[in-house]
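thought: fold this chain, then report.
action: predict
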Amino acid sequence: MPNKKVKNIMREILSDNWYTLNKYTFEYQRPDGSWETQQREAYDRGNGAAILLYNTKKGSVVLTKQFRMPTYVNGNDDGMMIEVCAGLLDGDDPADCVRKETEEETGYKISNVKKVMQTYMSPGSVTEILYLFVGEYDESMKVSEGGGAENETENIEVLELDFEKAMDMITTGDINDSKTIMLLQYAKLNALV
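observation:
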């Protein structure tokens, strides 16, 4: 690793049930030159990709709605989240991943996708890099009802929303997922819809 202020990294696996929770013990060089031992836990769930589907002519976007247990146990009364289509790479190229996830989750078979950014969503505790895309859709691309892969217990509801309504839902708190907010704001700033 290129950072010369970090050395003697040791990793201990704390859990390897759903994904992997690691505990790292390492030495970090302070600004005064001295070394201190630090410990951090990092959750490794793999990298992912997400996409905002938009339709310029209709002025609409396609989002998903599903139950998210971590939000439910942290103050989200019903645990339901409105989000852009997303999934883990599972060894796929990010663009291939969003194409596959789009068809599984929303029922749209798209081919043209554009990567607009990549981000660490929670760099203090999660290793995941999330690749963010946009892609235009129309009704001719609809090949199924979507809803997610049968074996993934996702139970996804597909939402087609007016773009301005979706933007308003950020303000009202009805959309509070960071990747979704980032992609909606990207669409607004770049006049996609």
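thought: worth noting. The longest strand covers residues 6-15.
final: tokens above.
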